[in-house]
C-alpha cells in the first residue's frame, strides 16, 4: 500500500478533491508500482501516460461514488 496516498473522498477531505490532489495520488501510485521515483528519459513518456490514465480513472471513480446517498463529486 502507498502510505503517502491519502483518501480523496469525504469525510477524509472536507471538500471535493482537486485535480492536483488526484494527480499527486496517481503519481505516487505509479512511482510505487514502477519502483522509480523519477524514470529514466527513455521511460518518461510511458510513466507520464500512466500517471494521466490513473488520474483520469481516479476522477471517474470519485465522480461515480455515492456516500450515504450523495455524490462525492458534483
From TrEMBL:
Task: State the source organism's domain of life.
Answer: Bacteria
InterPro entries, per database record? DUF2277 (IPR018735)
The name this protein goes by in its record: DUF2277 domain-containing protein
